[in-house]
Automatic annotation (TrEMBL):
Name of the protein described by the UniProt record: Mn-containing catalase
Gene3D superfamilies for this protein: 1.20.1260.10, manganese catalase, domain 2, chain A
Family indicated by similarity: Belongs to the manganese catalase family.
Pfam families: Mn_catalase
InterPro entries: Ferritin-like, Ferritin-like_SF, Mn_catalase, Mn_catalase_C
Amino acid sequence: MEMLATMIAQLLDDAPLDQVEAAAKDPAIGAILGGMNPQHAIVSSLGALPSDSVGYPWNSRYIVASGDLLSDFRANLNAESQGRLQVIRLYEQTTDPGVRDLLSFMIARDTMHQNQWLAAISEIEAKQGTITPASFPLELEKREVAHQFMNFSQGEESAAGCWASGPSMDGTGTFEYVQQPKAYGQAPILKPAPDIMHSRPEQAPSIINVGTLSK
């Protein structure tokens, strides 16, 4: 964040007006320049503002700490993957050699970070398997559906995928393709909302057709 904030500050300091106007001819850049978040000026005086693109401030909800290392490491791998993707998109949007040099460094570090998490994930999977959490007894699962690929959509093209047949990735079963699987359990009977909710009887909850939703 410090590297990016410093880079942006250096680019904006004493930027000639004609260059700003020329950059604004690009629709995306023009939209950004024309709709700057006022909090950037009011709250941080144009300094680095730890918020997303619509001004929502950073908070601890961005931290993934589930208590399961494999789950957390996979979340970290996803974050590094998304970060590298976005920096590459920034790289493609500029021809400035200095900016590209900095972004090239960050892209390379994201490559290393992904490799680090992949190595750690591989080590954990070798010890406890690929499914998290590993501590939950398999016999408590409804194992008859644990490796079923349930197709609720029209057509059967998905049946050819490696996710629908052959050995499962966790090594504990074989994938099974099921076209239009049967419903489990009885159809629920839901009561209308109480009168205090001011709902009309015809607006009472109804059973959702999952097959229709998936289409």
